[in-house]
Every structure is written in C-alpha cells, then in structure tokens.
Amino acid sequence: MRQFAFFILLLAVAVPRGWSQDDDSSTPDAEAPGTNINERYAVAAVELEGVSRSLISDVLYDEMQKMVGQRLDHRQAEMLRQRIESELGSRYTVVRKVRKSTTPRQLQIIYEVSKNPLLPFRNPRSFASYHSKEGFSFAFDVAPHLDHQRTQKLFVGAANDGDSLIERFAGFRIGYENVKLATDRLGLRFDYATYHTQWNVHTFNAAQESASGPGLYRRRRSLEASLAFAIDAYFYITSGVSANELEMQSPTVHFEPVRAAKASLRYRRVFGNGDDKQGLAGGYEVRTGTRALDSNFVYTRHSWDAEYMFRHEKHVIATTFVAGKITGNAPLFERFSLGDVEALRGWNKYEIAPLGGSREAYGSLEYHFDHLLAFYDVGSIWDPGASVKIKPSIGLGVGSTVKGTWDTGKEQSPFTLGDFSLILAVPFAEGKLQPTVMVMARFHM
Amino acid sequence: MRIRRLPQLLVLLVLGFRTHQLTAQSLNVRLEGDQLKIGAPQLRLLTGDALQRLRDGASVTYVFETVITSGRNGDRLAQATSRFVFSYDLWEEKYAVTRVGSPPRSVSHLSASGAEAWCLDLIRVPVAGISAQTPFWVSLEYRTEEPQRPPDNGDNSGFTLGGLIDIFSRRTLKQESRGSREAGPFRLVDLRRGH
C-alpha cells in the first residue's frame, strides 16, 4: 500500500510535464454564409474602439476598411477580429459588434478592444461545507468593484471556518484590493480580520500534554498589506507583511504579536478552448516571523503547490501536489493540516495531527466524468524526528453546477449560483472502515 | 438533534436542484405518421448571453438532441439531432432562423417566441422501430454552440488551485445557454388513439 501511495505521489508530480501542450479546438460554424439575416445589408463603416488605431498595422486597417460598401460578411469580419487580436497580443480581447448605421439599412462594424488585467484579485471564493467528522464551515464575502474599469474591489465577509486551519475561527474580515496601481503590472492589497478561535478536544488535549508546543489562543486579529507585481499574463510575484495579535489562553490571558514578512510566486496557464483544455497552476510561498518585526514567534514557513488538469469533453483528470516545511516556532494558524474537505479527504485532521505539523506532503489524482467524481488522495503530516505515516484515501462523489434564471416578467436572465458536490471518502486506516461524508458548495459571488 | 438533521438537509438541497431540473420541465409529444413531434410551450431559448450576441449582430447556433429511451435513464430507442442558426435583423428588429442540414430551411420576420416555436416544430424523431405497446420517455436537450474564444489568459480565478477547477467547469468565457426537458412515459398506441 505504501509503495502504491508513493507511486501516486510521483505521478502527481510527473504527469504535468508529460501532458502540458498547446491545443486548439474546432470552431463551430455559426457564421456560414446565408445564415445571418444581416448579410443582406451593406457596411457603412468599420471602427476600432478602445485602443489607438496606430496599434494595428496599416495593412490590417486597410483590410478592415475594404468591407465598407460591401454586404456584411460575417466570416470576413470574424477573420479580421482574429487578426486584430493576433496583432495586439494576448494582453487584449477583441469583441466584434454590428450596429445599425446612421445611413438607413446599412450597418456599422465595431471592434471593441479591452485590455486583459495582468494581476488577479486574490480574495478567496465564498463557500459552505460539511465534513461528517469535523462539522460545518462557511465563508461568505461580498466583493463589489469600486470602479468602472473593474480594477478595485472592496470586500467584506464573515466566516465560521473549521476546515482551512487546525483551529476553528469565526469572525469577519474586510479588505481592499487594487490590481492596477498606476500600471497594469502593480497591485496593492490590504486585509483586516478579527476571529474568535475554538479548539477541537483532540487539539486541546494535545496542547495540554505538549510542554514545548505552540500555545492555544482565544482570539486572533490580523492586518496584512502586500504588493503584487505581474511579470507577464501568467506569472506574478507578491511581497508584503502581516501583523497578527494572539490573545493567548495560558498560563494567563496575555497578548503575543506574530509579525511576518511574506512573499510568493504564482504561475497559471490554461491551454486550449472549448471542450479540450489543459491547465497548469503552481506556486511557492514563504512567510517568516522575525524579531526584526518585533515578533514573539520566530519561524519560516515554506509551501509549494502544483496542479495540472486535463479536460476532454465530459472527462477531466486532475492531479495535485502540495508540500510544506516550517522551521522555528510557528503559531498554530501557520502549521499545516491535512484531512478536510479539500485535502486528504476522508481523514480527520484532528486524529492525524491535532496540533498540525511542520512538514506536509500531499498528492491527489482525480477523475471526473460529467457529474461523477472519483479520487485517490495520499499524504502525510509530521514533525521532525517523528516517523512519517502515509495516509491514503479513496472516494466517490457527485457534483453539479447549479444554475437558475431570474424572471423579471419581461426577460429571463440566467445566472450561476455555484458548484455543489457530495463526496463519500474512505480512509485506508488500519483495522477500521470509517467513511466520511462531505458536502461542498463553492459560490459564484 | 437539529445539527444531526442538517447534513441530510444539505444533501437533499444538492440533490433537490438536480431533481428539480428534471421533473419541473415537461414536453408535449404527438405522432405524425412514423415520426414523433415535440412541443415545449414554456421553453424560452432567446435569453441572456445568446440574446445579447444576437442583438450584437452575430448568429447563434442551437443544437437540439432529442432522445427516446425505454425509461428514465433507460436504453436509447431512437434519437435525432437538429441544428438551427438564429440571427436578429438589426433593421427590422425581427428574428430569422435557418435549419442546418438536409433539406435546409429558412424563415425570417419572426418574433422571438415565433422563432423558437418554428424550430421546435421542425424537430422530429423516427419511431418506426418502437413497438406500439412499449412505454418510453422523451428528453430534449439543447445548447448553444459557442464561437471560438481567446485563451483564458485574462481569467484571474485560475491563479489559485481551486480557480483552475472554476475555469474547467466553464465551457467558455461566456455563459453557454443550455437546458433540457423530459417527459414520459408514453406509448405509441396511446398517442395514436389521441391523434
């Protein structure tokens, strides 16, 4: 069993290199001649909006103008849209629109160009989950855009989350993010959160028995600020500081600061279109608590993650690899945990490592067919000097994207509520069979 | 006690959405010779993103797949696939529809509901191979065929691991219009009597 587990871990790392390649899907023929009623009208004007005309070649611009006076030819107009996009590069998206001209029974072709943002918004998605051994969790955020260019967001949210960390934290958070700070390449983010923490009985008992382990706290407040810099459309780096204040429970109630510098590198790319897609994402993050920032906890936390996904029509194969290492004395919220609704599914994280661990390794292989899901997870959490126990699990699930329609009486507007899944996972524990039921909802908000 | 029931409620909620999609929608069927004709009076195709693309002068192709099965999720007894290209006349402010296939047919100057009804009226499934006494179910699935989109370079959600799943769960950058209707059981002998 252990050899099989290591094989899956190896596969999780090796597969992305072998499968990563560009892929184009076929284009449905919606613009065949004679199928669009507007082709009977002549074109009065062709315009480029959103960027300076000088950004495209004279040859291409002349080609566009050749459509003036001719009957609308959607294929030709679409071919020119693709050429505009090709000349402008991957930073831009071009949308073709046809409007009535001011000249009766003639049309105007407009190529609307918009610049793709380089930096992502980094606020996490709202979710609600249930784990039959660990209970309910949720985090809901409202994150409206503050400007027309959609480069700034204010987010306000509440959470009662026993899934993400070894602690259960409940409270609210508020933040601001700008992904275009004077230039497309620079972003800024502020977060403030205040949480009341609760501890599982396993964690509480383990903390009592551990004289040198990290202490429990009843409240955690954090303020974080970070800058992001985009190297290109696929790769960006971040750097920032976080200031946390822990209200410790023992030996008497007191406050301890956790101040850390942090940095990360992230890469993500999706290849292909339509029903054939491949995606690759990965990153590295380091956080270090230091006396230079007046922190009572001095530690360094490294984490690596990588995910590769391949989809062909209704088939999806996904593989994930996560690893982490902590040196020094990290607070409990920084320690690694496995055994929740997303990682090492089926296991109970409080039974594996009630105080979390300073080392982690985790791999997952997942197959989706339409609404069905099957997976194999394997991983381990440990501390230096302790033996590494490999924990595998398997599971099955069903999932669906829930969509609805707002009916205003005059018009129906479709919307996507979110992705819901129901999973039954079985950990390969010695001498017992204890399946775990999990429900996960990720909201599109 | 309340806590123990919550997981069951969540499961019911998840499954309930799926069930709702299947049962709350219905089809009318009638027999014309050896072919089954489909009616879906409450079906509204031209909404949301598809409607916006039509108003921008583009064509939108709808693919209808009609399947007759021996029961819900049963064996396939017959099926037919039909493709229709919709466009919106920007000057007349009326819809035009072309059936792709043999023989091609076109119609113009229709309202939205008229265009929807016209293409549904052309959908037929041959039922010559089905016994008159055999009960069967009819399902109609429809979806738009999306024009080619640029790669998802500008889609930010995929920078996280969970975000990739989001991208993969979306077929295109724009919302694809799709849906289904299902009804049954029917028997040809009953449909003939009704006819």
Describe it for me?
The complex is a heterodimer of chains A (445) and B (195). Chain A is mostly beta strands and 445 residues long. Helix content of chain A is 12%, strand content 51%. Chain A folds into two domains: 2-21 and 120-443, membrane protein fhac: a member of the omp85/tpsb transporter family (Porin), CATH 2.40.160; 37-115, Roll (Ubiquitin-like (UB roll)), CATH 3.10.20. Chain A has five helices and 19 strands. Chain A has a 16-stranded antiparallel β-barrel with strand order 4-5-6-7-8-9-10-11-12-13-14-15-16-17-18-19. A three-stranded mixed beta sheet of chain A has the order 1-3-2, with helices on one face. In chain A, a hairpin with an 8-residue loop joins strand 18 and strand 19 (436-443). The two termini of chain A are 41 Å apart. The model of chain A is unreliable at 1-30 (pLDDT under 50). Chain B has one domain (27-194). Chain B is 29% helix and 35% strand. In chain B, strand 3 (60-69) and strand 4 (76-89) form a beta hairpin. The N and C termini of chain B lie far apart (55 Å). Classes of the chains: A mainly beta (445), B alpha+beta (195). Chains A and B meet through helix 3, strand 2, strand 11, strand 12 and strand 13 of A and helix 1, helix 2, strand 4, strand 5 and helix 4 of B.
